[in-house]
Fold each of these.
Amino acid sequence: MEHQRRVRDSFDRQAFMTTIGARMTGLEPGHCVLEMASRPDLCQQNGFIHAGATTALADTAAGYAAFSLMPPGTDVLTVEFKMNLLNPAKGERLIARAQVIKPGRTLMVVRSDVVAITGTEEKPVATMLATMMCLKEA
Amino acid sequence: MEHQRRVRDSFDRQAFMTTIGARMTGLEPGHCVLEMASRPDLCQQNGFIHAGATTALADTAAGYAAFSLMPPGTDVLTVEFKMNLLNPAKGERLIARAQVIKPGRTLMVVRSDVVAITGTEEKPVATMLATMMCLKEA
Amino acid sequence: MEHQRRVRDSFDRQAFMTTIGARMTGLEPGHCVLEMASRPDLCQQNGFIHAGATTALADTAAGYAAFSLMPPGTDVLTVEFKMNLLNPAKGERLIARAQVIKPGRTLMVVRSDVVAITGTEEKPVATMLATMMCLKEA
Amino acid sequence: MEHQRRVRDSFDRQAFMTTIGARMTGLEPGHCVLEMASRPDLCQQNGFIHAGATTALADTAAGYAAFSLMPPGTDVLTVEFKMNLLNPAKGERLIARAQVIKPGRTLMVVRSDVVAITGTEEKPVATMLATMMCLKEA
């Protein structure tokens, strides 16, 4: 449970996650799930959730999926990500599900998929392919 | 000045830009500049601006750089972007400068560079390569 | 079987696929599989298959996975792709398996995974996330 | 000139560069230029140079731009790249010009632009944004 505590402590220090209303609803080694309720102040010009907010959710889920596999005394850094937007981000809430597809000592490759939930319906919103780096803490 | 008005009207309807405190400080055909002041509620676990907020700024600048070249009666949609994070986003404010590098009738390729400003110093934070799509309005 | 014929005719006209020894070994609507035997003239400085050859295989599989869903009288064009290299491309042959994850009238998003085969062992080599465009033929 | 020799030695061992007819025509610390003549066996179904061959050129230029800044006793590895195709690759030859935009001890971010040359005319073909890694040789 050590990795659980380290990941959740780090997540709780991310003020921007509070700003956008994101919560961590799942965490296992190499996997992380974040959720965010739809809100008017997260939207773009057409009333859909802004790609920037969607990306914040996807990137953070990806980072903690990777961090959950990193040893104590390290921190996680996003090297880069690529995001394909698949459908308008419209629904009651968004869920980002990230999983490490290639672990490594220095770098990890992570996929992070975002879906929109309306009632019991789930619709794909975006898919991210990201590279995360393990940093030794100073 | 028609494109100026259309772009600024659309930007003003982006509630998420208000949420993160972004302002449009430059706009010419094919170019767009956005600025955002550093704030604690935009940060990640180490006190740097969150990559999600940085991406929101870069993506929005890229979208409006493209939209400034699109004809009346259309809207702009982000197809995809790739973001490389170059340095921690630390400074008094961030500036995203986007320019269309390949205009097209349906698709436009845009580069968007984000820098951090501290006093008179400017440091690169991230570079984005994005694809934007021109949509006929319903 | 119409889409089968159109795809295979197009693939057969790709001289570069002959140059690198690629064959199409699977094709269904939205899916395409290509194989390429390992050869010294496809390698980089350490004796692994060059990322450029791997990318050619992944991109072509992705393109035909998308093309298989496009109507007659159209052609397919790669808009962009992102490739993460996961392990050295070492083995008897490479297989690229592509599937459309988001079909669309103008754009399709495709995932293309490359594995290396040695005997009965299969190892991930790379994963690509690509955007393909449907073009009306002149 | 030490970095010149190391880079050119490595390039000369890339059999795939011989296969596609690529030559190194420029090399300075952080910069690399490769050229490739147009040939029928490099083409796709419409007679343009295949995106895979274009990518091989761009990726190799990017790798050696990064490698030129790495210390002796190291090797270079492509972590990932993203490629936007801007125009059909049609011309007498292609030139890839790569430059490091963010050097680092472990990772380097590189931009690599490909143009097509016909007579004295130069047309953009593709732009790549890549991450390269510095590996200690065993």
Amino acid sequence: MPNLSPLSSTLRPETTSDIFRTQPTQADVDAVERLVRSTGVFSADEIGIARELVEENLAKGVVASGYHFLFVDGPNGIEGYTCFGPIPGTNARFELYWIAVHPQAQFSRLGKRLQIASEEAARALGAVLMIAETSTRADYAPARAFYERQGYRLLADIPDWHDEGDGLAIYGKKL
Amino acid sequence: MPNLSPLSSTLRPETTSDIFRTQPTQADVDAVERLVRSTGVFSADEIGIARELVEENLAKGVVASGYHFLFVDGPNGIEGYTCFGPIPGTNARFELYWIAVHPQAQFSRLGKRLQIASEEAARALGAVLMIAETSTRADYAPARAFYERQGYRLLADIPDWHDEGDGLAIYGKKL
């Protein structure tokens, strides 16, 4: 499988056939916003949070921030990325905070490769469980189906969590 | 009911018979740690998080940090406090991140007064739902019973969330 990224910083090439960039740069704050915005499914609030997580990593470093990244760079910017890290107050439980792939990239392939690499990276950091939270809204059905195909199990479904008619689906997968 | 705190900064005295201090100071970082530690139920990780929330408020201010506080000061330090704020990515949903009362204070009274004042303050900020998360462990039974007495409903129960045998109980109350 071809490498899709410059190799300035690489992730455990022995455990995955993919190599992703792990170190964010200042330019990624805007680049992540452009990518997340391109998907058309995230609110202004959520886009702000995506930016913040990159900024927190840049300000505090990966360990203190708790925000780990995998990036796939393409000719026109970031084609996909994930952000994940340990859930504060838990023992070796991690959360996949973000996974986003540009609409022009094959979500089913790039999304899956990013997901698998994130799980491998989390496991290498000691994680025993990966949590993924998403919405119960109809337009998030592809996201829920994606997690279910990747072996995630629905752990909780809380109606009206985000807003009226917009519940919270909490998925988990043992690593 | 007597006021328990200096009135340098006060919370909506028209909506509650209690008046609590809302503005943290640098000294509260250590004072909150001492209080939280005195309860005997929180881990080192959790105590670190309690400190961080005060630090975030001091560094960014209440709005940007999203961490609101109510403090009850006594002759030997903080007797009780809450920390609450809007849940990122939700519309007017708030979470009660912390409520702690010194073992020598009457938990049933001071805890309840802090809880009610936090709900009133959140409602004044537009909140329609207050979330409280705690553990399913046996030693957290008093915390769960406390929320249930205050009208909180169990929205989700996720086994092994924090650790093996230490699940997550998510409570919610419409405001």
